[in-house]
Protein: Phosphoribosylformylglycinamidine synthase subunit PurS
Organism: Cellulomonas aerilata
Amino acid sequence: MGRVVVEVMPKPEILDPQGKAVAGALPRLGFGQFTSVRQGKRFELEVEGDVTPEVLEAAAQAAATVLSNPVIEDVVRVADIEADAAATVTSTGTLA
């Protein structure tokens, strides 16, 4: 079974009150090195079999038409999760 990740973010010109709230809280919690935050959405889509270029294209079309609101959001990534695993940071802060 394969999995595709789709990430959607607000367009740069759109206000992000949730991101602003998180950015304000981070320094109070000891994370002062971060200067801004944008909060988006992540979808994980499972497919039978392997993730093929055709599956990625279908996921991109779904992202553009169903998973995002193109007026205020950009689809920033559509990828095979397994192919991206080498660059993923684990919850302990180390590279997987």
Notes: The two ends are 20 Å apart (CA to CA). The first helix runs from residue 17 to 28. Residues 13 and 69 are 14 Å apart (CA to CA). The chain is about 30% helix and 25% strand.
